Amino acid sequence: MKALITGATSGIGKSIANELSRRGWELILTGRNEDALRELQEKLGNTEIISADLSKKEDVFRVYEFCREKNVDMLVNNAGYGIFGEFDKTDLEDEINMINVNITALHILTKLFLCDFKMRDSGIILNVASVAGFMTGPLLSSYYASKNYVLRLSIAIYEELRRAKSNVSITVLCPGPVDTNFNNRAGVTFSAKPISPAFAAEYAVKKALSRKLFAIPGLSIKACAIGQRFIPSKILAALTYNVQKAKEKTGDKK
What we know:
Blueprint: E1 2-6, H1 11-22, E2 26-31, H2 34-44, E3 47-51, H3 57-67, E4 74-77, H4 92-120, E5 123-128, H5 141-163, E6 168-173, H6 182-186, H7 197-209, E7 214-215, H8 219-227, H9 233-247
Parallel strand pairs: 1-2, 1-4, 2-3, 4-5, 5-6, 6-7
């Protein structure tokens, strides 16, 4: 069995690579940091690497072409990041790059691999979203919106596959805080105790291999995902603003 993992050099992506390697899978890993990819390749063995910047559409297609004849059994769309700040003050170019990674790259790879998987009637797609995908997120507005896209796209594809009685499956991982570099890149601090990326990865892989749609690790996060349905949108946005504001780093945050 062989898996392609995007954003594989750190955090959840790296942990999913470790988890699948432990289970005997062959891997194709991609990320921007070629040195980190080579370190993983040496550590895990039975691994191919391709460095790519998924904010660039041509690199996304290059990754697909690299994998096209390699009989990939699982696509893990993990690459992504967030930007903290009021919407009118965050950097537009950075936001466009984030949207390209979080949405456009995931959309392209999901579509291309889904077509291949459906042709042979087998394959697994694991899309990494967030519990943020169930909500509106003031101060992380673009990030929350991007994860809403990932979540809703995945649910729609799941229903299409179910109706077609396809053997292809799709799972969407929706964790709460995870102890990765996400908060450092976004410029915020944790407001709740995070889970480890290893736990998130093990849970996600287990759910994906069981053909489950949702992978939501942790009872409190499950309760959050369910409970938000019963809170009016304006009140939920106000509550989320307060949660995100509490994360803001002091000092010389960019």
